[in-house]
Amino acid sequence: MDIQKTKLEFIKQILETDNPKLLEEISTFLKKVNKDFRDELTPSQKQEIEKKDTEIVNEETSDYETFISSHKNRKLNFIKDFINLENEETISELENILWKNYDFWNDLSFSEKEEIKKGIKELDKGKRYSYESVLKEIS
Description:
Layout: H1 3-16, H2 20-33, H3 43-57, H4 64-83, H5 88-99, H6 110-124, H7 131-138
């Protein structure tokens, strides 16, 4: 298929049509198919992208190592501030923010997850061990 030839034929058909409804349908279809991800961004996200584009044009960017170093320093400063906190309410609020979406499962290795899944299957089949029998086996 010659894509350029197909496009030219399509353009010719569009130019020859006098049907406004057909043109609107084609236009709607093309807008849907060629949807730009930026159309779904919030105004603040669009503004941030424009700001970064301007920085790139003005060569105000930094290299990866500088960025990571700055990021690490921000985290270290936060940790220092957190360690020095004495207000229990503030500490509790920060804990809630940090841990509200925490799922220990994401911190497990693949093999740990597989062992847990295996144990659950054994429990589902009725295969159970008492605490005492486990202690006896590992002693």
